[in-house]
């Protein structure tokens, strides 16, 4: 099935999210949409899937114009979409989830789940999905849940599949498995629209690449293009994809976590008896699939997790039980994973956001009175130092791009002497140029002698920044390993295997398949 978009424009008020986009996806083709978060990729696909009405333009399927008023229209035309955040009901079985919205009934109007089970088994066998129709979705690994989403589309006879950032929550092994599934779907004649900002995956799976920047198509590329060429096309200027850093020179261990446990409202141990150290002048990167205790770990250190036990010591002082203000006052710099919710006050100016945790301290205040002149001078200096692109320090933080918002948070947290620096998902949603800047600042803080903890679900980022890598799985510490540990071993550890078991499994796979080279395919 051939898909064509002509002049698709989508406006939200004065914001132009998609600007006269032309796109052709041929039958049996994997067509990658490459662009940074916020480039307009997902908006374009939501228009195609009937979730948004286009402001202008037309959609053609097999050279015939179609109008989709809702996702049902798109599905009826043979288009299926697997969203970045899965649309599954955890307490339902696979069959019940697949049947939703596409129910078949028996006599007396009873739901005919057996017919759905049969279709799931057929599709699972055809593509090697290995999905049990009667399994509860909440009990399935993330990678299998994604297969359920694909099955939902195939049961509805989708000939065009839209995969929106499909590897965002997968381990490297699950990513490899997904790419193999895509190859099988292509072989079967399906057309795939693969949306991503990850260069490895785009190069590995695409037949052709369309690059979107700020809502516009800025070019196309072949998968043979170098990562540097693709990255430069995404951001509009030359960038470096490698971080030149000197080996760490670890000093005294000044940050210690012992037997840290965090219990959530359901009584689950979301952080389970965690112990580790960080020395001055080193980066400990915490790796793992999102949802394995990383968020709760950083929040426990900051002092916002209520049901916490164990010990968190910085420079010999116990932090557990202290208020957030006291933790920050102890010399902890903290970049949260969601800058909009926890890092910035959007309606405040850049200058005001620069002193959110220092507004009542000298030199920014005298007694109960703030000093606007001093605050403005500090903000202007940091805007220049961190290259924050803004017309004025009086500009509300909400009006800045994601990259510039992150620079404001970094500027604030790195504007004072630190005893510990924690950054959670430090480059989420940033363009390649901003990522390069953030990584350099993190290493500069390390080289200044500060203990640094980075939490990231991006394995490339973990390997790039880490002096040691701590892998979490279901709230437990699997192990701490050096940064030259292979991606395949790290991926298996992120799925819960020990280092020894991961290496053993890879050795056995290699002996079965001598062509395997021990490295990730993506």
Outline the structure in words.
There is one protein chain. The chain contains 18 helices and 22 strands. The protein is an alpha/beta fold and 522 residues long. It folds into three domains: 3-235, Rossmann fold; 242-331 and 417-485, P-loop containing nucleotide triphosphate hydrolases (Rossmann fold, 3-Layer(aba) Sandwich); 347-413, no CATH class. It has a six-stranded mixed sheet, sandwiched between helices. It has a six-stranded mixed sheet with strand order 16-19-20-13-21-22, with helices on both faces. A four-stranded antiparallel sheet has the order 2-1-4-5, with helices on one face. The radius of gyration is 25 Å and the shape is globular. Mean pLDDT is 89; it is low at 517-522. This is Simple sugar transport system ATP-binding protein. Keywords: ATP-binding, Cell membrane, Membrane, Nucleotide-binding, Repeat, Sugar transport, Translocase, Transport. It is a peripheral membrane protein.
CATH fold-level label of the largest domain:
Rossmann fold
Spatial strand arrangement across the major sheet: 6-7-8-3-9-10
Mean pLDDT across the residues is 89
Largest sheet: 6 strands, mixed
Q: For the terminal residues, how far apart are their CA atoms?
A: 27 Å
Structural class: alpha/beta
Domain ABC transporter: 3-239, 255-499
Membrane topology: Peripheral membrane protein
Keywords: ATP-binding, Cell membrane, Membrane, Nucleotide-binding, Repeat, Sugar transport, Translocase, Transport
Protein name: Simple sugar transport system ATP-binding protein
Summarize the structure.
With 522 residues, the protein is an alpha/beta fold.
